[in-house]
């Protein structure tokens, strides 16, 4: 089938949404489909055989890494040439509206998916008063779709409670070939710890942005004697965080990818993840695949992945000492930590990208079949 995929973020940006979309496009193409990606222009014209139609945009004021790309006539022209069987809009906000309108005017089946918990993000940027308005906007857009896909049961519930209909689960996936425990290395551990591989090593991987609540890792770091913290990634809050963590043993590593990122996970003692706004928390699955024990907030989609005391630790995000107690417990019990590592890897092995994309293709086929009957 021919699938037009609209996304507000894609390569070369690095985040969990892009990771999912990369694997989705790859596996859809492998399964004999033809995918055309519409995204803010990042300089790429092709990925894994799928064409990319880049649309110029402007940086988002509160988040310069993200670009607002507005619909324009060239999109409709490209769609007319492509003749999509189905349109999939990812996090419909601005660019995705072009796909929504085209689907309605040309009677092309529409699927939408929800990956970023934007209503919760507003509170971290001083815009909490707009939450109700944003939910109404999301409802208006998503309810045009035949199916609304979520990546966790918590997000399914949140969308349903706010009036979004036809909600379904799109299962998680992780690259267990790239992320493996045997990639642990003394060299990477020394790099992350800035020359102190013998010290307890805490790790965070992800965007350095306000909604990730990375500042809440500082008390955890300070509660563990001689501990080191490696923050892997970048984002709009980096300078604020560099100032906030001044005087601590914190290494701002920047972006890592591929085997280097896998080695960073495998070489660390604990992956600490305090965010309360995760729709899924894909990076947690990557850590688990690499055998890195996880300490994460019991919030959003995270409990779908982490089973407390079995393959990681969960803490109450409203308890200021919760993350401290969980991390201290993890680091003080070497046998328990090893069991958690093994169980985390076993959990990750249950979720392949090929299986997740096959499920997505089944959703697509069900939508097309329903429309064929209605026609």
Overview of the structural elements:
The chain has helices at 16-30, 73-82, 96-106, 118-124, 131-142, 153-161, 186-192, 218-222, 238-244, 258-266, 282-289, 322-332, 334-348, 353-374, and strands at 2-7, 34-40, 46-47, 50-55, 57-60, 63-69, 86-90, 110-114, 147-150, 167-169, 201-205, 228-232, 250-254, 270-273, 294-297, 313-315. It is α/β, with parallel strands linked by helices. It folds into 2 domains: 2-173 and 352-374, Glycogen Phosphorylase B (Rossmann fold), CATH 3.40.50; 181-348, Glycogen Phosphorylase B (Rossmann fold, 3-Layer(aba) Sandwich). Helix 4 packs antiparallel against helix 5 (131-142). It is globular. It starts with a strand and ends with a helix. The model has no long low-confidence stretch (mean pLDDT 92).
Low-confidence stretches: none
Strand order of the largest sheet: 3-4-2-1-7-8-9-10
Secondary-structure element order, N to C = EHEEEEEHEHEHHEHEHEHEHEHEHEEHHH
Helical content (DSSP H or I, runs of 4+)? 25-40%
Which class of secondary structure composition applies to the elements?
alpha/beta
Q: Main β-sheet: number of strands, strand sense, barrel status? A: 8 strands, mixed
Strand-residue proportion: 15-25%
CATH class of the largest domain: Alpha Beta
Stated plainly, the CATH topology of the largest domain is called Rossmann fold
* Radius of gyration, in angstroms, nearest whole number: 21 Å
Q: How many domain modules?
A: 2
